[in-house]
Amino acid sequence: MTSTAPKKLPPLPVLRAIERVRDALGTLHRKLVPGHIALLELQIAGFLSQAISAAAELGIADELAEGPRTPAKLAGALGIDEGGLRRLMRLLVSYGVFAQRRDGSYELTRIGDALRSDAEVTLRDLSRFFGSPYHRNHWTHLTDAVRTGEAVGQALDGASFFEYAAVNREVGELFDNAMTSVSTLAIEPLLAAYDFGRFGTLIDVGGGRGSLLTEILGRYPAAQGIVFDLPNVVDDLTADLEAAGLGQRCTVESGSFFEEVPQGGDVYLLKHIVHDWSDTHAEQILRTVRAAMRPTSTLLLLELVLPDHQRPHPGKFIDLEMLVNTEGGHERTEAEFRALLARSGFTLVRTVETAAPDCVLEAVPR
Predict the structure, then answer these.
(1) How many domains, the chain?
(2) Active site (catalytic) residues
(3) Domain with 231 in it: what CATH number?
(4) What is the pLDDT of residues 33-87, one digit of tens each?
(5) Residue span of the structural domain in which 78 resides
(6) What is the mean pLDDT of residues 21-31?
(7) 215/361 same-domain check
(8) CA 66, 72, 77 angle in degrees (round to 5)?
């Protein structure tokens, strides 16, 4: 596979400075308006999220990718009510998701472009998943999850999320596609922040459809890799790797990371795996990986790391997602990761920030 040219990302200090300014302006706004107004603004943000999900489900961005459309032509192409479309777009235009020209036609913006199904970095399926009846129903029971400290899946569905998604493939496939979107968001910042050039064989544990490893191997032609995941996840993945020109450099193995993972890798990647599990289960996964590693191997966890500050951070949202939908999964601070790794036979060497919310936690066997 031919390596793609790295995208130019702003320097990390610049991004962090912008985040601090943004957070400060948000805090100032909330302090200047009456408390009940600030609370109301926060509360109705959920309406905006659902409106974006509706736009994703309807395929509005895909239609506008062909060029500006009048409300009548857009509604006709989508097979929906023009009045309902106008009302949805009025809200989304006001937040810059779409734009409305002087002639009344709608067009894409750089924000709405990410809702295209064929965008280089698409969030369409992620938006559809967050707005799906399944996900909304679970979040309706956030109060129960907070009260009990337990996920709501068993009470609502009779199964944990992963068990339910494995059987109900409409939900499972939507979730898988949504997680591929999240993976795409993290890949470029990861490659910009971390040098994989010193590793010969990379093993992506829980690697899904291999999007991360495919991109890494494309950037590092001398490297080889193994994608490891459950049999139903990696089914037919070998054909995809061959089509991508990686048939000679990347293989596929299947199994459970609770039992055994491929041996002998120079580096073991676990992206967004550990946060899905309780400390007990996470330690079991890490010990399985530790047993397969050589003394000179390296472990890389790509995860959100909860900050010590009290400003907004994506990890604080996802932590509640873990509470609602996983059996004991949660986001962790760097200190909590350090302790978890130590109990599992690792020493945390360093934490590397990326331009995305994710960090790279680099650890070695003890």
Answers:
(1) 2
(2) 275
(3) 3.40.50.150
(4) 899 999 999 999 999 999 999 999 999 999 999 999 999 999 999 999 999 999 9
(5) 12-116
(6) 88
(7) yes
(8) 45
